[in-house]
Amino acid sequence: MGVKIRFHKDLDLEEAIEYRAGQKVELKERPGVFDTISEYDSTMVPPIWLANDPQPRYPQELKVVAQKSVGLGQLRLPGNSKVRYVDFWGHFSLISKSS
């Protein structure tokens, strides 16, 4: 399943991958409270929307919860370009980017 992200060309690609839809996070201001990212929209400030929280969030408000030791993923960006990446315990490496 591809994840759709609204993407701005000046945005750090690594942040878009780290805070992708479906990623589990913990709210730093409320330790022990977990939620799932429902959308990352680089055109919005703050850019992260959570599934169970009506308030959008900044990356510095969230702690990413590692779900797998190694994972492969793909993002579809506007303009039909695709980004493929590998996730090693929360450290991301770009595999390919195509238009």
Task: Characterise this structure.
With 99 residues, the chain is mostly beta strands. The chain is 6% helix and 48% strand. The chain has one helix at residues 13-18, and strands at residues 3-4, 24-27, 34-40, 48-50, 53-57, 62-64, 70-77, 81-88, 91-98. A 5-stranded antiparallel β-sheet has the order 5-4-3-2-6, with no helix packed on it. Strands 1-7-8-9 form a 4-stranded mixed β-sheet. A hairpin with a 2-residue loop joins strand 4 and strand 5. It is globular, with a radius of gyration of 13 Å. The model is unreliable at 7-11 (pLDDT under 50).
Quick summary:
This protein has 99 residues and is mainly β. The protein has 1 helix and 9 strands; from the N terminus they run βαββββββββ. The protein starts with a strand and ends with a strand.
